[in-house]
Input
Amino acid sequence: MKRFLIFSIAMVVVATGTALGHSLLVRADSPMTETQIQRIRENCVEAQSTLYQLHASDALLRVNRGQLYETMSTKLMEPFDSRLTLNSYDASGLVTVAADYDAKLTEFRVDYQQYEEAMSRTLAINCTNQPVAFYDSVADTRSKRTKVHDATLVLHQLIGDYKDAFEKFAKDFKETDK
Output
């Protein structure tokens, strides 16, 4: 989470200049001033460099996290839940959490794809020639990245929920086995 916040803040600061904190709130209601536009132009190279680095690190992180999330579902949850069901155990708590996890995993994939497309569009904009379009595109990309981050938080929560459901199942299993 700290890394996400640092990158988000860096994107805003680099893209708009350090003195434009107020303009982030004003932008939706009023056009950008010439001073704000000039700051974007002046910081264009730095902003693009930061975005390229972020894009590369996010791609690697997405692959690693995506594989981990996928493995949790296909190699752990699904086989375990199937075995329990085949052996006539009540795995309803585990199955419910696993289904929620799979739905959120699908949402994570879609959110990441939208973020990737937005980032690619942002990187294609020449911020020296199109500073307002660049600023707006960075804001859109940031909001899509936030959705990806939120999806990962929910996935982690669901992993914890699955652990809790497993522990409840194990406790109930031990009690009925006695």
